[in-house]
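The record is given unchanged here:
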Amino acid sequence: MVDLEQSEEQLEQEVQDLRYQLEIAKETLRAIGNGEVDALVIAGLEGEQVYTLQGADSSYRMLVEEMKEGAATITTDSTLLLYCNKRLASLVKTPLKNLIGTDFKEFISPSDLTLFQALSQKANLGSGKAELTLIARDGTEVPVYLSINILNQKGVEVGCLIITDLSEQKRDEDIVAQERLTRLLLEQAAESIIVCDHQGKIIRASQEAQRILGANLLLSDFDDLIKLELLPQQNGGHSLRKKEKSSNSIFSIASVINGHPYKGREVLFIRKDGEKINFLLSASPLSKPHSVFKGCVVILTNITERKWSEESLKKINEELEIKVSERTAELESLNSRLKQELVEQARTQQILQDQAQLLDLANDGIIAIDLNDHINYWNQGAEKLYGYSKSEALGNNLVELLKIPSPQALEKIKQEVLEKGNWEGELIQTNQQGNTVIIHSSWSLKKDSEGNPIAILKINRDITKAKQAEQAIIDSGLRLAGILDMAQDAIISINEQQQITLFNQGAEKIFGYTANEILKRPFSLLISEFSFQKDCQYHPELLPENRLIQDIGEYQEVTGYRKDGTEFPAEVSISRLSLEAGKILTVFMRDISDRKRVEISIQKAQEDLEIKVQERTMQLATSNDELVREIAERKLLENELHEVNEELEQRVEQRTNELAKAINDLKEEAIERQKTTLALQESEARFRAAIDGSLDAFFLLQSYRDTEGKLTNFVLVDMNSKAEELLSQNKDNLLGKKLNDVFYQESNLGYFDRYLRAFRTRKGFEEELEVSNPNIKGKWLQIQVVPLSDGIALTCCDITERKQSEEAAQQANQNLTRWVNDLEQRNRETMLLGQMSEFLQACNSTEEAYQVMNDLLKPFFPKISGGLFVARNSKNLVEMVAIWGDLQGISEAVFSPQDCWALRRGRSHFVPATTSNLLCKHIHQKNHRQYQLNSNNSSEIIPKPPEKNKLPATYPVMVEHLCVPMIAQGDALGLLCLASEESGQISADQQRLATAVAEHIALALANLKLREALEYQSIRDGLTGLYNRRYLEESLEREINRAQRQKFGLGIIMIDIDHFKNYNDTFGHNGGDIVLQQLGNILQKNVRGSDIACRYGGEEFTLILPEISLEFVKERAEQIRVEVQQLKPKHRDQDLGQITLSLGIAMFPNQGLTGESIMRAADTALYQAKEEGRNRVCVFGSNFDHYT
């Protein structure tokens, strides 16, 4: 350090001393260089000689001069260079003559000066050694290993330096580090990665490959060790699959080495233990940069689990299809049974409707009221029954609307329904016109899902006409019975079983039996069997159907038996009536005992007269006179007898005619009455047979009226056995009871009102009701209400099983639909995942994958906004690469990983809208910044952040969102984000699908990045980023073939940097690398998309220009030469000097037809450019004219 207080004389003296030392050093170097002396003189501080190298040590001097390490001697105090060899001058890029006398510390990096001083102090104790960095004249940093020793000759200490260049060692260490990185990637890779040399031997293998394929793969022949069977391609067609299947095609590594890559091909590998593993094969050739190394890389992705999942899914599909088929068959069988039941029920109903007009006229009123008697349902039957329209009835109180004079009775029925659940009976009500109608009403209680009563349903049938018709039938029957009882003759009806069904009062007087005693007993009790059979022979059994036969035979005499056992003569006439229900015989019998007695008297008188005549004739034989007298008397008696006989016969004939006429009149009247009776009996029989044989419960209710004649209720008058089963009560205990006493459980469901309206309007109705009365069998009833003349008829069908079957069928259909939908969704998701994996496997780069990612992801979540975010290489930012929906308005496009809970936690993060405080920052911070921006632009004071639950419109929007990290090999590659402004959009299935999609994408991106790294290393030059020589050779043949097919020109430019060795010698390798890098940048900037720029080797570069003419090639080459010449490269603020290029041009097909020939032509043109002085462009075959 210079002392500022020194005098000028002292300073001048120091300058003189330094100049003297410099002159001595120069003279020494000159003498050594010219060989004038055989001794090496080293000057000390005082200029005296301190060390002499004798001629005998010339060999040692030669060794020092030519050694690869740098050697120098320096002063120990001022570190001036007293001596250095050529190697040291080369390291610091300074001429040897300019080094002597300079301060060695000028070439030491400022950061290492302290270390150098420490080494100098350590050398005083022995020797000092360390690594440090020298700075050459051009600013290049040179890592060196420095060793310093102190020599003492004649009392003068000098420092001897040995400097070793560590640049190559550092470069080797970088290569080793890169190798370690590659090895680490192979160790951590999830796929089986295998690298083979040009002979197909395995030189590298990932740990996954070692684990799956074998214990030791290195240096083994790939084809001998790993047998991969190529499986048929899914989209290859039937013929290709059949061919590969029959030939069992085996994968060969040689085809890949020869340039035939595989992408996404399925293969099968069978391990030694017999386990089968499915792989997805991707294989591509590669070459090592700056060498002729050839080989290939094989990536095997284990898809065994995916195959197993596909097989499992297929099996589940088949099982589900079987279950669906079985369930479908069950449903079809159930539907068939239901249809059969419906058809049977419809047939039964049709029969009932055909046989009874009462059932055809079913049109009842259905009314629903709440617990306050307000009407909330009113059907058309109710409108016809009561005369009130739906608009007039709905919402009004039923008691007030119908003007019921005694609502207490209805309130009692209502309470009974609330207690028991239902009620049925007859009511007398008044319609809108003031007419009284008798209705049969059924009330049922309706409850909610919790069992609380909410409404009362009423089914009212108008039975006014039915009651009137019943009364008319009764009156007609009474009239007919009176007429029959007026007849003196016996009138008896007999059925086909010869049982007595009718026995009038005349028959009671004749036979002595009462009607109750003889009905249903055989007719043979009244008449002899012989005479009855004799009479029936005139009446054949086979008669035309539905034909009325009158006067089948004349009166026949038979013998009758009285109750007391006496016999009497009688005349019998039999008429036959043939009906659908059977044949009925009507017997007319007359007691002829009196007539028989008269006839017997006459016969006895005749017999007595004949006896007397005979006696008299015998007396005449003795006396003529007496004979004549007797004859005269006889004649007189005969005349008297004849007159008596004639008179008797006239009287008998007259009486007989009178009786015959009376009997015929009675017979005709009886037949007519019998027709009416039989019609009534047949109608009743048909009706009884229909209701008794019906599978449904039948109730016949008669109207019940108060003292004023107003219908107030219905009384049960008849019911069938099914009705007993339905109500779980005996018929005898229910007949005669009122509607509210019979149907006590469901009395408050408005039955009476509906029945009354149906009764009044004469329109029946049908409905299905759910009942809750435990005494009524069945939970669902189908009720048909038919109004009668003086009551109503109810038909109740238990449809519980049908309802349960319908509910079961509906539930089964819903389950089946849900299963099918789930299966279709799973199949769709699996198909989309497979399609996405195929596309990503087929992508050549991550950028290409990002471009298709939007179209691939949107089908997974069509109703949800989403985006894909990928982490940058620096890992400090995450940026959006794909988006769909409105995510851009919800999330940031670029954000820090710390802004996402999923990336920080390493697991999925779902936030529903109700917990918006857990939203990721990248979701709402965009709106937050907008709020702050609006506040900053305002002239007012910036307000405080809004309080919770009081956010302004521009503050973060409360949305639900899902963030799923994409993690592969323990490294977070990015993020899949789903967001929605509506709550409940992101379901559990959507979250599961998002996780699966993120895993597939992470695995695919990791594979792509690894493939890009390997491919980049195989085809790119690491220093310039241009393509390497191997890629050049492959591309050149391809471009020549394309140019030959399409008939266009192809240009080749060979480029060489002039005097490139000087850059390395002068500025070191770093300076040369800067020149190469800047030239590579210019070439990349000046090429088109179809052009190919390559580093051919060393400082030589090549351009392939397809579809171009020679003129444009010349222009392009000249443009590159001029632009490079204008460069001013610097290294550590030191100019590297001007860069010039020599360029050679050759054209296809003019200068060659093959890649080798065209390259040779361009290389020849390049050497011609160098011979002509460099910095120029030469074209092959043009007299080597150049363009400068």
Notes: The radius of gyration is 64 Å. The chain has a mean pLDDT of 77. Residues 624-693 form the longest helix (70 residues).
